[in-house]
User: What shape does this take?
Amino acid sequence: MNWPNLSYPAWKDTGHSLHMWAQIVGKFRLAQTPWVNHSWHATLYPDARGLTTGLIPGGFEVRFDLIDHRLAVTATSGAQTGFDLRSMSVADFDAAFKTALRRVGAPTNYHHFPNEVPDPIPFRDQTDEGSYDRDAARAWWQALVAMVPVFQTFRTGFLGKVSPVHLFWGSLDLAVTRFSGRSAPLHPGGFPALPDAVTQEAYSHEVSSAGFWAGGNGADEAMFYSYAYPVPEGFGDEPAGPDGAYFDTDLGEFLLPYRIVAEAEDPAAILLSFLQATFDAAATLGNWDQAALTSELGQPRIPRAMSRD
Assistant: This one.
């Protein structure tokens, strides 16, 4: 599996464009889909060509095709359309997306302000010429493709409630979350341009969450992360796994630079060690019932052994 080099300076401007574009597409999915706990109904998913919404109620799918660099909109009626991904303003993308939706008979009544960014500007008013570098976009997607199987493998070692491996467009981060099964204290909220009710529902129960983002928001390079809510006492003092992983006191989470994983002889093993060590810190200090909730990692074609008391 290819773990490409990711340069934050080369990605930054393209990343901003994709962040806003993904919010627009994600908000279309959000507007059509009944609410699922922890906002799981709103996410995007890496796939064999880029990012997809999956099938949206009403019979529509939207895909960022990062091989042909095209936004594709498909309906179960057989109608399909799209437009090329290129350097353009957020306003121009928004207008082109609405036109594509109308061509396949889809509604266009989604929310028109971005979330999780300070001082949000409506998409239609973001008229500055954007940037889209095909190489940077494809490298980011290829990195997601490389890491998703590792997160999926990690997911198999948990028998309790666990999220899919999915991409949240609010902060453009890939994530997988494990739940202890216990309710959590009411989250204080306070995320920029995000209703506190959304945050509080997302963190309604104790979590250990891990994922990846490509830089920005407190980091000048691509990073893997892991955090817990509520944060157990002593969490940041626990071992973080591989060399180079550390606890960032400003962000309040464990970080592992992507470059350390990408340059390793066995990237998957390095990433898995980070995911496991930081989960163990959250679960041990948080008094999770690990005997009931965790297991050996899953293997292809091998059912889990059933224990009988």
